[in-house]
Design a protein that fits this description.
By secondary structure, this protein is of the alpha+beta class. The protein contains 5 helices and 11 strands.
Length: 191
Amino acid sequence: GMRRGRVRPRVLSGWKRRRWGAGASRSSAGAEDGAAVSNAGQFATYLNVTADRDFAARLNDCLASAQSEQVQRYAAAFSNTAGRAMTVVVQQMVAAKAAGVFFTKDPPGRPSALLEAVAGLGEALVSGQRQADDFRFAPDGTLASKEGDLLTAAQAEGIYGNAMKARALFRTELDLEWAVDREGRAFFLQA
């Protein structure tokens, strides 16, 4: 719906029709996460976008982030993915009570799944600003350990169940960003 520098009128009218109050503009590139190398965090994400002019600017900023000096250096050193196509995903903001990342396979390679949670937006977790509550799941799907009280066991188990459905659907291990709103509803934001 756009080329860098100009948001097409139908994209902007679609944004206006949503009447979300606030949205998020997230980068989505095929090179962002791979089996061998991850570019996660290299491209831009903008949260709590509200005004129409800010919406257009944040879309452009997301697209421009694929060509940033930081991305070019990272790609040259690790992934050789510089200049690949970038898409921008626009989502309604979730008024998050808690958020985080669910790993269908614990990053050190253990045969367990790991759910990390922080209060509020997950940005505090992925940027390293806050220490997470951890919920570990045994290979049979049972909640093996719970460190923290941001989520109930039932909420953590619900996220686990849906994450494992996504893993089965995509036939690969996933890192899923999620949020639970103030009413207790869980959402997957990206994988």
